[in-house]
Structure formats: C-alpha cells, structure tokens
Model the fold of this input.
Amino acid sequence: MRAMILAAGRGERMRPLTDSIPKPLLKVGGQCLIEYHIKRLVMAGLREIVINHAHLGEQIEQTLGNGQTYGADLRYSPEGIALETGGGIYKALPLLGKAPFLVINGDVWCDYPLNQLCHHSLTGLAHLILVNNPAHHPKGDFCLINNRISQNGTPRLTFSGIGLYHPDLFKDCQAGAFPLAPLLIKAMQAGLVSGEHYQGEWIDVGTPDRLERLEQMLK
Done:
C-alpha cells in the first residue's frame, strides 16, 4: 500500500507564519509537522509516500529530499496552483498505483495507529476516520451508523483528514481543481463509504493558536 500526504494548502489562517514557509514545514515539538506523518507512516510499514505541494513547494522538496533520512521513498506531485483535495489526489493517481491507498491531511496531528488502515479490507470506495467534534467545528461532518458513513443523521462526527481510498472513487473525474467532499457524498449515497470513530488525540493545526496548543501538548 502507498500513502499520500496532502501538503498543497496555502495556510491562509496561519499567516503571517506561512508567508515565507509552507504550512507542512512549520515546526512543533522540535520537528516539522509533515515529519510526524512521514515517520508514523514508515513505522506502519508505508514507505512509498507521495506528497503534493503548491505554495512554496520547492521548500518541501529541499527539506525532505528523497526520504532516505526517514527510511521512506518520497515522490512529489507539484501543482503550481493548488488543485484542492480531490484534484490533488486525482493528479497524483499515477504515483499511487491501482490498489487502495492511504491519504492524510498535512495539517492535522493525530496518534491514530496507521497500521490498522494498512490491514483494513476495503469493501467500498473509501474508509474514513472520524473524531469527536472540536470546539471550532461543533456541528461535525458526517454520521456513522453500523460502520457506514452518511451525510445525514445524528450524532455527527468530524472527518479527521485520514482515509483509505480506492482509485475508482475518482474514475469519472477530470484534471483540474475540485473538492473531495462531493465524491465522498456520492459514494456514501451508494453505501460505499465505511468508517470508524477514533477517540484518541487529534488536532486540526490550522491556526497559530492550535499550533501553540499542540506545542504545549507535546511538551
């Protein structure tokens, strides 16, 4: 199985920190955000990792290199102008292969055991990790009933930004910028999206305040 780290976002809410450095390279606990993901993926046995980038993306390649330092094989999918989550994954499909692959947002921090996804038998088009709703997103995203995810219903949980996807989820897509959510919702309506509720540590590191909160937690 291969993995992809989504690292192409501009990081508007992190400005001015992200005016001169891409968000995935912001340091917390003594290392870059994206390094936590790389190391945890390698520990889970996922060494072939694709990273997309746009804003100041050359800094990501210069910092991480080919991944040898981490025991990983890093490949890059440069976008120039960010293609949003769906478009970014679609562009990277040639690097991800024909088997299901793991995707993780570059701007979250989570201690979910990624090796569980490596051994998950995907029966539909996607399997999503949901978490408790944070204070800044109290209404959540999706409903989880009997391990199946729906757009409607209660209680609602928040999508963690960690998921397992089958390439067929993108089979009708065309190159360009587009979000992932409509594809997932369509698959949910067909009963093809499973999920699980993880109740461990998870932080959406989207603002300087949350970055500082993570810094304090790691200490």
Observations:
- Helices lie at 33-43, 57-64, 84-96, 115-118, 181-189, 208-218.
- The mean pLDDT is 92.
